[in-house]
């Protein structure tokens, strides 16, 4: 739809709420209309509903089964060209840590052999994660580094994990695939990408802040009867959802590279933070006027489908955390690694004490904060494509965009579909002026785009 028509439609919807906002709290009909406007439910109106806990008769796939189409449509990830912190192997990663409580007390690992050279340090193996105690709201389990992570050791940088130029494979950094059955023909494929370190952003010369050891990012490809419908990608606790058919798609297989004619949706991993976006350039987030931004470009192209661990997630009777090992790219590796996915603690060090010389404060955040939690804490049973709504998203909407949201910037921007594009295509200065007034000099387009995409 033309941007101007979007604006008119949105202004029409706003007319529903011209009375006092307080009065809308008790107006179910207007509440419903606003909720429908801000959600993507109409997109699926002719399709059967998704189910967080489908019954046996509603299920689409068997436990432990990875459909072929999930691999065919696996996302490709462009890493940033000057990325310092690359994807890493979780099996090797945990060997550089010991389990502790927040106060630094070491947690003894059940069954560890006193003759094991790792016994004194309680150095971890991946299978040990399933033996650790559960975290609670009052007490979190952490993986605490055995050496100074601030000096960028190899297990932090993963500097050798550069994608193969021809195939996109990273041999020493498997991705993690978790396939969840949403019933009635719907299947969600979650691809998790692990990096050993998150380098936080700078704001107005301050920073970096929000650094943390360990970094889990993920994307979701939602299928209906084997066809991809929606792609969602994580970014800073939120993320963006897009219709698959409108995303950039390429092909990167063992036989070589085929650009712009493939099946695999393309996402871009931002410098340092590894937040995911559908385009290159500068991406503002969380603060106005792009004060806080991520940057993406076409660095190494990573094909996670060539090296991945595979699992199915089959919640039953309200139990969300039932995971079945499947066979990924390397058969039986999942069985060798055990039930590490059930570890619900942090995948890195706790927030450093202010007295630690490595810790610094900026006007926005401490430099080093808690490490992140793992894949099973990412709301895999969600019906909305979005993992969760951010604090400012008071309507809890999840907008599936109809076109790619392009990044900004002088050098890496590859497109523009804002009001500016509309204005420059109107030759008559008088008509252009009228359109600018009707769209509030771009604000109408911005608001419409926010809700409609």
From TrEMBL:
InterPro entries: Vps62, VPS_Associated. The keyword Metal-binding does not apply. It comes from the Eukaryota. GO terms for cellular component: fungal-type vacuole membrane. It holds the Pfam family Vps62. GO terms for biological process: protein targeting to vacuole. Keywords: Signal. Residues 1-19 form the signal peptide. This is Vacuolar protein sorting-associated protein 62. The lineage of its organism: Eukaryota, Fungi, Dikarya, Ascomycota, Saccharomycotina.
């Amino acid at each position: 739809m033309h941007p101007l028509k979007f604006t008119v439609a949105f202004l029409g919807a706003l007319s529903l709420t011209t009375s006092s906002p307080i009065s809308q709290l008790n107006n179910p009909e207007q509440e419903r209309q606003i909720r429908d406007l801000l959600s993507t439910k109409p997109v699926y109106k002719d399709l059967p509903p998704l189910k967080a806990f489908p019954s046996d008769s509603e299920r689409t796939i068997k436990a432990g089964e990875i459909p072929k189409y999930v691999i065919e449509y696996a996302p490709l990830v462009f890493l940033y060209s000057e990325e310092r912190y690359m994807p890493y192997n979780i099996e090797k990663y945990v060997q550089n840590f010991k389990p502790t409580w927040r106060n630094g007390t070491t947690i003894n690992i059940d069954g560890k052999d006193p003759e094991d050279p790792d016994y004194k340090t309680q150095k971890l193996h991946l299978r040990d994660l399933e033996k650790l105690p559960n975290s609670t709201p009052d007490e979190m389990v952490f993986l605490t580094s055995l050496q100074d992570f601030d000096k960028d050791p190899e297990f932090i940088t993963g500097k050798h994990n550069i994608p193969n130029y021809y195939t996109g494979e990273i041999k020493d950094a498997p991705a993690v695939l978790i396939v969840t059955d949403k019933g009635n023909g719907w299947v969600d494929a979650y691809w998790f990408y692990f990096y050993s370190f998150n380098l936080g952003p700078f704001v107005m010369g301050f920073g970096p802040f929000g650094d943390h050891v360990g970094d889990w990012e993920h994307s979701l490809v939602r299928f209906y009867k084997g066809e991809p419908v929606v792609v969602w990608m994580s970014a800073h606790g939120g993320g963006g959802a897009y219709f698959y058919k409108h995303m950039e798609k390429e092909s990167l297989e063992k036989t070589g590279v085929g650009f712009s004619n493939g099946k695999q949706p393309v996402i871009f991993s931002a410098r340092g933070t590894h937040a995911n976006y559908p385009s290159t350039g500068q991406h503002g987030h969380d603060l106005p006027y792009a004060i806080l931004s991520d940057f993406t470009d076409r660095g190494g192209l990573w094909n996670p489908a060539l090296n991945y661990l595979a699992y199915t997630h089959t919640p039953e009777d309200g139990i969300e955390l039932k995971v079945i090992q499947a066979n990924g790219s390397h058969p039986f590796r999942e069985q060798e690694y055990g039930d590490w996915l059930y570890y619900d603690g942090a995948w890195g060090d706790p927030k450093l004490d202010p007295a630690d010389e490595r810790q610094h404060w900026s006007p926005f955040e401490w430099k080093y904060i808690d490490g992140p939690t793992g894949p099973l804490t990412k709301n895999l049973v969600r019906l909305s494509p979005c993992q969760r709504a951010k604090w400012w998203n008071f309507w809890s909407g999840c907008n599936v965009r109809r076109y790619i949201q392009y990044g900004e910037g002088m050098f890496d921007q590859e497109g523009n579909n804002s009001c500016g594009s509309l204005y420059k295509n109107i030759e008559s200065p008088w008509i252009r002026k009228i359109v600018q007034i009707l769209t509030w000099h771009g604000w109408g387009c911005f608001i419409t785009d926010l809700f409609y995409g």
